[in-house]
Amino acid sequence: MKGGVSKQQLPRNLVGNLAYFIVNLMIGLLLVPYFVSTLGVAAYGIIPLATSLNGYVGLFTQSLNTAVARFLTVDLQQENYDSANKTFNTAFFGVSGIILAMVPVVLLISVFAPTIFDVPSGQESGAIFLFLGVNGAFLLRSWSGNFTVSLFAYNRLDLLNLVNIVNVVIQVLLIILFFSIAQPSLTLIGLAYLIGGVTASILAIVLSRRINPHLKVRLSDFTPSRLRELTGMGGWVVVNQIGSLLYRNIDLIVVNMFFGALAGGEYAIALQWVILLRAIAHTLAAVNTPIILSYYARDKIKPLIKVSKSAVKLMGLLMALPIGLVCGFAPSLLGIWIGEEYSFLALLMVVLTGHLTVNLAVLPLFSINVAYNRVKIPGILTLIMGAGNLLLAIALSVYTGWGYFGVAVAAAITLTLKNALFTPWYATRILKIPANTFTNSMLPGIIATVAIAGIAAVLNMTFQVTTLPGLIIAGGMIGIAYLAALWPFSLDEFERALFLSYLPKKIRRNVK
């Protein structure tokens, strides 16, 4: 593999990312009302609760894979295949050991899930099998992550997304098949997740062996000194991950344990839009990660800074549109999507999604921490703030009478404080550039989000948007006007060139 990031690969990666996002979008939008209608709101709430625990189960494997991605990318960019094999095999056998140690933990969590959480009456055994299937599939995907990490290191995000698409499509097709031939249950969902995980893991191994002929599974390449390097970085990534989980994956647990399964189901409905918006942002940010790592590996710091600054601005401006539309049309969106009886969740959805205009714009900056192996301080701060989020969520929800609104408000406060102040500042500290560099890049996205949300809310109240065609027309009008103004007035020449570089050649030729 030649050093650098292939320009031809960038559009393929973006197409792959967009395909994965569209699949997740369609599945997320269609599955929620399907589950609510077949299982009920309370039982539906157990599904995202089970998947939210994946982060805790995979803390060490995900963190080690993050470190591996950094070291393996540098090795391969420098064409040091001997070192790459040591990194790969050290991670492979290390992760395999961690997963074996996690099996009893998964079994205990699954068996005692009905005792730990509030599960609807009659769904106790189904909940056990759901947790077994979901977490078992996650362990398999974590193990095959050794191979998908090597795809990432070769900048084959298109193939990485193919693996992910196969996983979710098989899950959904099997759920629909099982529900059509048997009584809908949580057990069948767990089985579908497990089969999807097995299939995706096999595909990951096959693709990795084709794309990465230099990497071989050899126990002799397991290197204790390399393991210390990986766990040195990975250990602080674990700390960071714990903090992140206390931000993102604690809310459903708190709501379920303090307010019950029904409240958990209602909260999960509104939370689905947070998941979808995060999916959009990660789709965009993932394209930049190999670029940042490649620039770092080749000691091209000035281009790294320029791309990072523009990526933050582009992320904020692009995410302003969906975030603003979700906030502005929240009541109609819920009524059309799930049913008018759930429109009361509109305010909760605004609280959950509004702050993402700040917290998603900074995603491109996290690659800088990984590239420079500067993850200790962010990890410590994220853990502290995450613990603060948990305590604040309990305090605001239980002791103020706000209910699950308190959980949403706590996440908005703590996450925004961290990402509006510390994250952009720390990136500038690493790069030794002015402290306001990335903060200034975030402002256009914030202003655009507020404007779009306001316009959407006025349109919604004025024309009483209550049908899907009406919602599409109103949202489309705002989107077209916004994008038409964005291109000539909000982006400079470099930012337009950067955006165009992600597009396939055929589309690029038609955009001026």
Structure explained in plain terms:
This protein has 512 residues and is an all-alpha fold. It folds into 2 domains: 7-248, no CATH class; 250-506, no CATH class. The chain contains 23 helices and no strands. The protein has helices at residues 9-39, 41-44, 46-52, 54-57, 59-77, 81-111, 113-116, 124-153, 157-181, 186-211, 224-248, 251-297, 301-328, 330-337, 346-354, 356-359, 366-371, 376-398, 404-431, 437-463, 468-489, 493-501, 505-509. Helix 5 (59-77) packs parallel to helix 8 and helix 14 packs across helix 15 (346-354). The chain crosses the membrane at residues 21-47, 92-116, 128-152, 159-182, 188-208, 250-269, 275-296, 317-338, 344-366, 378-396, 402-421, 442-463, 469-489.
Give a brief rundown of this model:
The chain is mainly α. The protein is built from 23 helices and no strands.
Strand residue content: under 5%
Count the beta strands.
0
| Biggest beta-sheet profile | none
What's the domain count? 2
Poorly predicted spans: 1-5
Radius of gyration: 22 Å
| Termini separation | 33 Å
Q: What is the 3D form?
A: globular
The residue-averaged pLDDT reads: 83
Total of helices: 23
Order of helices and strands: HHHHHHHHHHHHHHHHHHHHHHH
Class of secondary structure makeup:
mainly alpha
Helical proportion, percent range: over 70%
